[in-house]
């Protein structure tokens, strides 16, 4: 089980404003709090700043690297930004987010994955976009796993992201993703499955409740990695409780550690 802290992302207004005023202390604080809350990786994403993304990525990655002892997840579709961040991701094995089955993007990003010996998030999309059917989704997953392993990437370093869609725009999106995760777990042993949870609740009220419920449902069918907000105490509580209940936490060790840290204490 792996958690990637999602909060350092310029699509979030406070992060964008902190970058605009050069507020390294704010970025550092968000990174430290996520690591202390249980994040195994800290995601760094400045993809909305397309005019100076590589420079901003380097600035952010350097701040986060110096602030925490967990590795970085460098998150961008831009190969130059990926390289700029990965050069500074020197603590532990970095993660690259992301590669896709789009031929041009795959060809551009694969050498970066290999050069930095990074774990890689592989998005379930190709040149036709995000698949609209289960059959197409499976076809893309198979191609990604086959092409990455043929290139020398170990299955255990591949994190398939089946891509979450909002249930506000498609009421079957949640059920379809749960089925896809179950299929990937059964047919591609050894690979990891990861997703950003929050998209499922886009456009609906009480988003945290939906995100938390979806996290638990996905874990029951084989999801083993999440890009989420580790400062959401209830989310983290459900995460550790679900691990223990599904037999994925030997001797309930992580659950008990979370309890001792006060995660389940009510204010």
Total helical elements = 10
Question: What fraction of residues sit in β-strands?
Answer: 5-15%
Query: Percent helix among the residues?
Result: 40-55%
Terminal CA distance: 28 Å
Organism: Thermacetogenium phaeum (strain ATCC BAA-254 / DSM 26808 / PB)
InterPro entries: Dihydropteroate_synth-like_sf, Met_Synthase/Corrinoid, Pterin-binding_dom
EC number: 2.1.1.13
Domain Pterin-binding: 1-267
Would you kindly provide a written description of the structure presented here, covering whatever features stand out?
This protein is of the alpha/beta class. The chain has a domain at 1-92. The chain has helices spanning 13-20, 24-36, 53-67, 79-86, 103-115, 134-150, 173-187, 207-221, 233-245, 253-260; strands at 2-9, 41-45, 72-75, 95-99, 119-123, 158-161, 192-196, 225-228. Strands 1-2-3-4-5-6-7-8 form an eight-stranded parallel β-barrel, surrounded by six helices. The chain is globular.
């Amino acid at each position: 089980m792996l958690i990637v802290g999602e909060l350092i992302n310029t699509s979030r207004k406070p992060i964008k404003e902190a970058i605009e005023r050069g507020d390294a202390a704010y970025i550092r604080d968000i990174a430290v709090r996520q690591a202390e809350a249980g994040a195994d990786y800290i995601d760094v994403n400045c993809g909305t700043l397309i005019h100076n993304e590589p420079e901003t990525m380097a600035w952010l990655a350097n701040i986060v690297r110096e602030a925490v002892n967990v590795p970085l997840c460098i998150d961008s579709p831009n190969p130059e930004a990926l390289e700029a961040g990965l050069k500074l991701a020197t603590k532990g094995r970095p993660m690259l987010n992301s590669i896709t089955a789009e031929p041009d993007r795959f060809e551009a990003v694969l050498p970066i994955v290999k050069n930095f010996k990074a774990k890689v998030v592989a998005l379930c999309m190709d040149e036709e976009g995000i698949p609209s059917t289960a059959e197409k989704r499976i076809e893309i997953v198979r191609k990604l796993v086959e092409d990455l392993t043929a290139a020398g990437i170990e299955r255990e370093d591949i994190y398939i992201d089946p891509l979450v869609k909002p249930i506000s725009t498609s009421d079957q999106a949640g059920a379809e993703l749960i089925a896809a995760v179950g299929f990937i777990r059964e047919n591609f042993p050894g690979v990891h499955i990861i997703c950003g949870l929050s998209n499922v609740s886009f456009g609906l009220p009480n988003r945290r409740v939906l995100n938390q419920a979806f996290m638990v449902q996905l874990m029951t069918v084989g999801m083993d990695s999440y890009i989420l907000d580790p400062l959401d105490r209830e989310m983290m509580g459900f995460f550790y409780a679900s691990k223990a209940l599904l037999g994925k936490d030997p001797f309930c060790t992580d659950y008990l550690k979370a309890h001792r840290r006060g995660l389940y204490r009510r204010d």
